[in-house]
Amino acid sequence: MRPVGQANVVAEPVLRIEDLSVCVERDGRSNLALSSVSLSISNGEIVGIVGESGCGKTMMALAIMGLMAENCRTVHGSIALQGLEITSLSARSMRSFRGRRMSMIFQEPMVALNPLMRVGRQVEEVLAIHHIGNRSERRRRVRELFAQVGLSGSGFRSRQYPHELSGGMRQRVMIAVALAAEPALLIADEPTTALDATVQAQILDLLLDIRSRLGTSILFVTHDMGVIAEVADRVVVMYAGQVVEVASVQDLFARPGHPYTAGLLGSITAASSVPEGGDLPTIAGRVPSLEEIPLGCAFAPRCAKVQAHCIDNRPQLATLETGHLAACWFPLPSVGDPRTSATSHSEGGK
Amino acid sequence: MNLAINEPWELELPSTRTVRFVKARTALRWWPVAILLVAAFAAAFPFLLAPLNPDITNLSARLEGPGYSAGGVRFILGTDNLGRDILSRLIWGVRVSVVVATASVLVAGGFGGAMGIIAGAQKKILGPVIMRVADMVLSIPFFLLAILVVAALGPSVRNLVIVLALVRWPRYARVAYAQTIETSKREFVQAAIALGARKLRIVRRHILPEVLPPLVVVATLEVGLMVVYEAALSFIGLGVQPPTPSWGAMLSTGQEFVSTAWWISTFPGLALFLLVVAVNRLGDLVRDRLDPRGH
Could you tell me the pTM of the whole model? Predict the structure, then answer.
């Protein structure tokens, strides 16, 4: 059922974003929400995008889906899905891609499902939109999908309304909706943020399971480092609309190169690591708004290791070790032994 | 609340009588339905209910009061200035009220609702144009427009419906417009867009089910107003033409004789009152049912 794309070169990533800049116009002024962002996801890979709120994570997801608000514009760069440039596509072909070649899971399953429609119908709807199968084939596929996302007794579940399901079940329905047309790329925008911890773990397991069974590539947007550690193969750290670090998940957690990444990792709260009565570790300051992004390193005002050079010059992504890039003039030294990460399993996709 | 219950038997449970009373009162809230059923029946089968032919004049029995009988014929609610039976005319008159009110609400609601949804879905050019036209229509005095249309098209039931629909559609358009805009912002609509759904499909599957309930509420409340408007237009002679019986026209005839033959205008007025109150009350009940937020 997957659209013909098998002719692609093996090395062709599912998604390749190159030098993408997006500007937002507000009150007659335009500001860069994404500046020169590059990213690629290979087949069956899970890439996590992390960063605080307002760093451009969701903007990136929306840019890929072609769902940016009307005051946003791609000023530069390219987005290629399975080797096909999509920034220049007509609205019509873009629509036929959405849901079919790439799909999205939303943050809050409570509101992303239509409360007046049976959940089975909502899954079927995606198939109908893309003219997949006839009525009975669609029904069968819905049952299949419900089983796939772990909604047992699917015949009965599919006849229920969203309000009759728990948060976790609703998110499973959302995932079934997103997977229905067998997209090559799944964009998950904070899919577990609205769920409680145990359900969160189940949903993450489900996503990992889907990746290994269907080979779906997943772009996982989150601000939760713990979740990233659990699911991602590779991590892209964003700050103020820029990519500041790219690394495999092992390298990133073991040897963060950018002070911002180190700050994020330092802010993970482990119950044992906080002294009695002590403050939780944080990164001082806040994410700059689009209007006030500094000319030099965007993180400079909050950086503990800031030097004069950082204020006026913007660092570019530079390789620290194979597959590990950071945009910092003075990247953190590797902790412990300086061996390279040649053993990292996710290097270069496959 | 400070309930001091010393002994278990002091705890007062509602008596069977109270329960029955409450139940009866709940059922009685639906009295408008009974009245409307009678009206609907009368509109559909007036010949079964009306004791006499409403159009037969009898000049020897003109302006007779309620209960008058002559030659074995009983005029329960009296006769009008041409000796026609008031009760029979009243019963036949329901038809015009019901038909005109329902038809105009359906036309105005259908057209206005569609316009509102289109305006809400096409926010760039078409939307503002439609809504400004709606504002314009609302700013034209009702009777002025009615006289204009009737003068142009001639008085008839069909034209009456056209006039009423023309005047009232903006009301539905505004409700549908607001609801469409609001629903469009909801995340499940955004999700549908992210899944590749076309606009028409989104309107049909997601917007329409959200727009219809408030439209139905407005429509039920509008029916009452349409009954009054129809009567008003017939009263000034722009509506249904004689000899077709209409409550508005009957009121109009009756006003000349109000000091000598009060029954000619009183009974149609009463009937009008009853019908409108029943419709409005039903509208309230429907609203309470459809609007979970309550009032």
Answer: 0.77
Which among A70, A64, A104 is positioned nearest to A84, based on CA atoms?
A64
Tell me how far apart the alpha carbons of residues B206 and B190 are, in angstroms, rounded to a whole number. Answer: 11
Give the distance, in angstroms, between the CA of residue A216 and the centroid of all CA atoms in the same chain.
13
Q: How far is CA A317 from the centre of its chain?
A: 20
> Which residues neighbour B65 within 8 Å (Cβ) at sequence distance 6 or greater?
B78, B261, B263
Q: Give the residues across from A326 on adjacent strands.
A: A245, A318
Q: Specify whether the CB–CB gap between B79 and B86 falls below 8 A.
A: yes
CB contact under 8 A, A112 and B209: no
Closest-CA distance, B191 to chain A, in angstroms, reads 6
The mean pLDDT of B197-218, rounded to a whole number, is: 91
Does A66 touch chain B if contact means CB atoms closer than 8 Å?
A: no
Interval B138-147: pLDDT, tens: 898 888 888 8
Residues 6+ positions from A263 with CB-CB distance below 8 Å: A283, A302
Strand partners for B79? B85
* Look-up of token digits 């964003």: A238
On whether any CB of chain A is under 8 Å from the CB of B196, the answer is: yes
Pairing of strands B73-75, B68-70: antiparallel
Lowest mean pLDDT among A4-18, B47-61, B121-135: A4-18
Q: Read off the pLDDT of residues B167-207 as tens digits, 9 standing for 90 and up.
A: 899 999 999 999 999 999 888 998 899 898 888 999 999 99
A contact residues 98-127, partner B, Cβ 8 Å cutoff: 98-100, 103-104, 106, 108, 111-117, 125-126
> For residue A222, which amino acid is it?
T
Tell me if B207 sits within 8 A of B118, measured CB to CB: no
Q: What is the DSSP letter of B155?
A: S
B67 DSSP 8-state letter: T
Burial of residue B83 (number of CB atoms within 10 Å: 0-12, 13-18, 19+) = middle
The CB-based long-range contact list for B255-262 (8 Å cut-off, 24+ gap) reads B256/B81, B257/B63, B257/B81, B260/B63, B261/B63, B261/B65, B261/B78, B261/B80, B261/B81
Write down the domain spans for chain B.
Answer: 36-48+67-290
Give B36-48+67-290's CATH code, choosing from 2.130.10.10, 3.40.50.2000, 1.10.555.10, 1.10.3720.10: 1.10.3720.10
